[in-house]
Design goal:
heterodimer; A: 10 helices; 11% strand; B: 589 residues; six-stranded mixed β-sheet
């Protein structure tokens, strides 16, 4: 298989959400002494981008999106350790602390964002659902995250997003983090009103916003 | 030796013991004699005719009623007549309790007619207009346990014209056989009505019921005016969260919508609001809170606890409903924060308590609630199905009103045959139509099992100006997956599988027009053997009606609501993977 065909197969494995195939192709590259970075950039990343297009057009829905994210994650798990330390760091888009806010137990949307962020090269610290403001901040401080992502599925719990921003300000660490908000009731206007740095209307938009925040668009 | 009691015209012998009341003997023999006032000799609804035998001794109360109605002494009250000698009697049909079918469609279960609100007419002979004290003392003699409260609480005594019998006649409105609510002039006992109300998030249905006969006089349905604050329960809760002014607006909106329906019904049936003395509402927990203007803040954030599950009945004037302000309004008790009184009502209507075996009850509304009866145990949960099943939020969605496509099937030529409510030209699509259309589109390969509309236009034409979009299919996909996941998880929680079920009862505002075969084809409901799936229509309304007509059904419902175990789905760890898997449109078991 020439490289173009291999890259195309990688792209297709992600588009098809075929986890085993994606991981297998990644292992093949390493066994043949290929360049993991090239495989990521020319093989797998075009796959997840294509998935984004299919989602936008309505062709893909939640199951396909999740399966593709899983396939991407499986390939990355094989390739990332093989990258030289410097290059791995260069390829990582940064750390994101992510969770559904206190009082809210809905987490499917948040999990989707977590999966797509990892698939796109972010390192994700997923705090789960019903997460206290304090916990978001301490996890961000401990992990050295660049982004804090807050999901809220209820207009009632959405108010917690504002509280987190206020808390960061009162501690004088607001500038240390980019704050990304999302969830069904959250709008661009709300994000602007509370002074969030980024907003994602859906999981893929959240990834785009995260990339923009880290200057990696 | 016991006297011989013969029931004519059949000549059937009724066992009885000497000195026993005729009413008791008949009741024991299974004859549904109307003991409306509880055998107090106050209502005169248990009249029987003594055909032969010595006419037994008559007591004061009986005499009063017979004189009042101008009846001969051979006509007697079964509740007061003591059987001492051999006796033959005839019972006119008007003295028998009608058997109440609990559901208009689906299975019917009879229950005893014994409404909580009653009207008892009585007369008294006084020189001038009687004083309140005189009226109360007569009423007390008829009904010793009646709580009349202090003089200040007493309803005003109306002026009663003199009855031909020479008596001043009044009618007392009594609640739960113990509380005096009102007096009316003259004998108005035949004019007593109640409202059974399905307090839906999307749709409201009001039924007018004659509480003297148990007959339904008609229904009216319409949109819940709260819709302008949000389509689903969560958005309504959010609107009212921490905002008493908005909560009041929500309360006023639903009362306004209900009153429109009530006025329409009363107008059609020529019933005055003052004649409506009882209303029973079945709604979800949030709707029940908002109807009373009670804060929903507890329902807004985890751990999701409302202000109450079971609210005591209240005076109609406190609610703003168009009816007698002294009448009573009750809410069917809730089971949990997201399993409301509508489900309690549905379980009562479906007769789930008496049925044996393992049965699943599903209410397909904006909240898809699921209750499981497993032997003696009850568990219930709710899933956020969204308003798709009520036809809302779809690009061409509408309620099941005239012009709504409610049935669809592929004809021989492969063309789509659609049926609309009222046979009008198609205007939109309601919930049952949506299910049929999707089943046909799947069969024709126009939609993939993943929910993708194959045609590049991403549209499925239905009729002139009516179509389904990709987004509509996604809405149904999410709604069906929520219900499917709920079914799987509640069964798992009780250690059961679909194969263990004896029956699935499907209720919903869509009535009985759900095509259950199509519901199974798209995977909304599991594939069951023929005969194991029963579509019972609007069980919430039927349950409210049962509460209205029968104190024993009311008590049964109240105790049932406390017995059902509330299962929170979101706490189950693998909800997500089950939900994602459930998004596929395919049959399952």
């Amino acid at each position: 298989m020439d490289m173009t065909t291999t890259f195309q197969a990688m792209t297709q494995a992600v588009v098809d959400g075929d986890r085993d195939k994606a991981a297998g192709l990644a292992r093949d590259v390493l066994a043949r002494g290929g360049d993991p970075q090239e495989a990521i950039e020319n093989g797998f990343i075009p796959g997840i981008q294509k998935v984004g297009v299919l989602w936008e057009s309505g062709e893909y829905f939640l199951p396909e999106l999740l399966a593709s994210a899983e396939a991407m994650k499986a390939a990355m798990a094989v390739l990332r350790p093989a990258l030289e330390t410097g290059r791995a760091a260069a390829l990582s888009l940064g750390k994101v602390v992510l969770g559904t806010i206190e009082g809210d137990i809905h987490d499917i949307g948040k999990n989707l964002v977590a999966a797509l962020l990892s698939a796109n090269g972010f390192e994700v610290v997923d705090l789960g659902a019903d997460v206290k403001i304090e916990r978001f901040i301490s996890a961000a401080e401990e992990s050295g995250a660049a982004i804090i992502g807050l999901s809220a599925l209820l207009t009632t719990t959405m108010l917690g997003q504002r509280r987190l921003l206020e808390e960061l300000k009162s501690r004088g660490i607001r500038e240390k983090y980019k704050v990304l908000v999302g969830g069904a009731p959250v709008t661009r206007k709300w994000a602007d009103d509370i002074g969030a740095d980024g907003y994602g209307e859906n999981a893929l938009a959240a990834v785009q916003a995260a990339k923009a925040l880290t200057g990696r668009r | 030796m016991s006297p011989r009691l013969i029931l004519l015209p059949e000549g059937r012998e009724i066992p009885c013991s000497e000195g026993e009341s005729l009413g008791e003997a008949l009741t024991r023999a299974g004859i549904p004699i109307s003991l409306y006032c509880g055998g107090r000799g106050a209502c005169g609804k248990c009249l029987v005719e003594v055909a032969s035998g010595p006419v037994p001794e008559i007591d004061g109360r009986e005499r009063r009623i017979l004189e009042f109605r101008g009846l001969p002494e051979s006509t007697r009250l079964a509740c007061r007549l003591r059987v001492r000698d051999d006796l033959s009697i005839r019972i006119p049909p008007s003295s028998l309790v009608p058997s109440m079918p609990i559901l208009v469609a689906g299975k019917q279960r009879p229950f005893a007619f014994n409404p909580a609100l009653k009207k008892i007419a009585f007369g008294l002979r006084t020189a001038g207009p009687p004083s309140a004290g005189e009226v109360i003392s007569v009423l007390r003699s008829l009904w010793p346990e009646l709580e009349t409260g202090s003089a200040a609480d007493l309803p005003c005594l109306p002026e009663a014209p003199l009855h031909p019998s020479g008596e001043h006649v009044f009618t007392a409105v009594v609640y739960d056989d113990r509380e005096l609510l009102d007096f009316e002039a003259g004998d108005t006992s035949a004019r007593i009505f109640g409202l059974a109300i399905d307090l839906g998030t999307t749709t409201l249905v009001v039924e007018l019921v004659d509480l003297s006969s148990g007959r339904s006089l008609g229904t009216a349905a319409g949109l819940n005016g709260q819709a302008s604050f949000g389509a689903d329960v969560v958005s309504r809760i959010s609107a009212a969260f921490g905002n008493p002014g908005r909560l009041e607006e929500l309360r006023a909106a639903v009362i306004r919508s209900l009153n429109e329906l009530v006025r329409d019904l009363l107008g059609r049936q020529e019933v005055a609001p003052s004649e409506v003395v009882d209303a029973v509402l079945a709604g979800n927990t949030a709707m029940n809170h908002m109807f009373l203007g009670v804060s929903v803040d507890g329902l807004a954030v985890a751990p999701f606890e409302g202000a109450y599950l079971d609210h005591p009945a209240l005076a109609a004037r406190e609610t703003g409903l168009v009816m007698n302000p002294r009448g009573r309004v009750s809410l069917v008790p809730n089971i949990g924060s997201f399993v409301g009184g509508d489900i309690t009502a549905g379980l009562i209507a479906g007769g789930l308590e008496e049925l044996t075996g393992r049965r699943l009850f599903i209410d397909l509304g904006t909240n898809g609630e699921i209750a499981l009866k497993n032997g003696e145990r009850f568990a219930a949960t709710s899933t956020a199905a969204g308003p798709a099943f009520e036809g809302m939020t779809l690009s061409c969605g509408m309620l099941a009103l005239p012009g709504a496509v409610y049935k669809a099937s592929a004809g021989r030529d492969g063309q789509l045959d659609v049926e609309t409510v009222g046979g009008l030209p198609p205007k939109g699509i309601c919930g049952t139509g949506l299910i049929d259309l999707l089943a046909e589109a799947l069969a024709a390969g126009k939609v993939t099992t993943g929910g993708q509309v194959v045609d590049k236009s991403r549209r499925l034409p239905v009729a002139q100006g009516v179509s389904l979009t990709q987004q509509d299919v996604r809405e149904l996909q999410l709604a069906a997956a929520a219900v499917k996941t709920g079914i799987r998880m509640i069964l798992e929680d009780e250690g059961l599988t679909v194969a263990d079920l004896d029956e699935i009862l499907v209720a919903g505002a869509f009535g009985t027009s759900l095509n259950s075969e199509n519901a199974m084809k798209i995977g909304l409901l599991p594939r069951l053997e023929a005969g194991k799936l029963t579509v019972i229509g609007n069980a919430s309304l039927a349950g409210a009606r049962a509460f209205l007509l029968s104190r024993s059904e009311r008590r049964r419902g109240e105790s049932l609501a406390r017995r059902v175990r509330h299962v929170a789905l979101a706490k189950g760890g693998d909800f997500q993977s089950k939900f994602i898997e459930a998004l596929e449109f395919k049959e399952w078991t």
